[in-house]
């Protein structure tokens, strides 16, 4: 699953954050990129990170919102090359991408509760630490039997 989200790091402008998540392991962030532009390279970079981390099987469905970056020729070519299937949310329907909406709801509540970041580098550092040192390895999810996403995945692969 993929989605873009706009950060307001020092209250002055938007910085787009793109996140790819594993839809089976409902809360695990697999790839992320944070830049100062909205070009398709943001989606492609985060998606390539997710591919390297997850190594999806052919025919896996890649679901996203309807952003132009996800509809770009380069992104679609990358999906086709991997023999994956693309799915997009209906226009103006956040429920089609409910896992990502839930993720960003928690993201805002837990990471950004203290307000905006001081600068772009602080935002990158804090987001990385939130995802890699807290959210994936430690944050418990009722939908995962009160396990963290990493522990849930370990239990699934061990079974």
UniProtKB/TrEMBL annotation:
<dbReference type="Pfam" id="PF13333">
    <property type="entry name" value="rve_2"/>
</dbReference>
<dbReference type="Pfam" id="PF00665">
    <property type="entry name" value="rve"/>
</dbReference>
<dbReference type="GO" id="GO:0015074">
    <property type="term" value="P:DNA integration"/>
</dbReference>
<dbReference type="InterPro" id="IPR001584">
    <property type="entry name" value="Integrase_cat-core"/>
</dbReference>
<dbReference type="InterPro" id="IPR050900">
    <property type="entry name" value="Transposase_IS3/IS150/IS904"/>
</dbReference>
<dbReference type="InterPro" id="IPR036397">
    <property type="entry name" value="RNaseH_sf"/>
</dbReference>
<dbReference type="InterPro" id="IPR012337">
    <property type="entry name" value="RNaseH-like_sf"/>
</dbReference>
<protein>
    <submittedName>
        <fullName>DDE-type integrase/transposase/recombinase</fullName>
    </submittedName>
</protein>
<dbReference type="GO" id="GO:0003676">
    <property type="term" value="F:nucleic acid binding"/>
</dbReference>
<feature type="domain" description="Integrase catalytic">
    <location>
        <begin position="43"/>
        <end position="157"/>
    </location>
</feature>
């Amino acid at each position: 699953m993929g989605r873009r989200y706009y950060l307001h790091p020092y209250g002055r402008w938007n910085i787009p954050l793109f996140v790819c998540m594993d839809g089976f392991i409902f809360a695990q962030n697999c790839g992320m990129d944070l830049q100062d532009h909205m070009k398709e390279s943001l989606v492609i970079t985060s998606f390539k990170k997710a591919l390297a981390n997850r190594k999806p099987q052919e025919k896996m469905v890649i679901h996203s919102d309807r952003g132009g970056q996800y509809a770009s020729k380069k992104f679609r070519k990358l999906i086709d090359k991997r023999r994956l299937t693309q799915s997009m949310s209906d226009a103006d329907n956040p429920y089609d991408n409910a896992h990502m909406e839930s993720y960003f709801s928690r993201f805002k509540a837990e990471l950004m509760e203290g307000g905006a970041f001081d600068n772009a580098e602080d935002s990158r550092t804090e987001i990385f630490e939130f995802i890699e040192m807290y959210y994936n390895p430690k944050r418990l999810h009722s939908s995962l039997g009160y396990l963290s996403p990493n522990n849930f995945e370990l239990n699934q692969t061990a079974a």
